[in-house]
Amino acid sequence: MTTKRSAYDVIVAPVITEKATLASEANQVIFKVNRQATKTEIKAAIESLFKVKVKAVNTIVRKGKKKAFRGITAVLSDTKRAVVTLEDGQSIDVTTGL
Asked: Which of 6, 29, 36, 93 is most buried as measured by Cβ atoms within 10 A of its Cβ?
């Protein structure tokens, strides 16, 4: 049974890294998204939140790293990222909040 997620539940946060900045030159924006979110849900959420036209959505599941602190080892949780390609002429400014 699937539940309807709101756009704010699908999109967790924008990714602001050097690689994400280079991707913006190719009209792409990278977001952290909910692990259970599908590509169609991500596309609908981006289009409704930012009022832009999305060309394609590619997703990546980034495996959690193993970390050690004071002899205790832990595994960070996996994260899912979406690389959203926008139509020509469209843009998103991720530095401003929603």
From this structure: 29
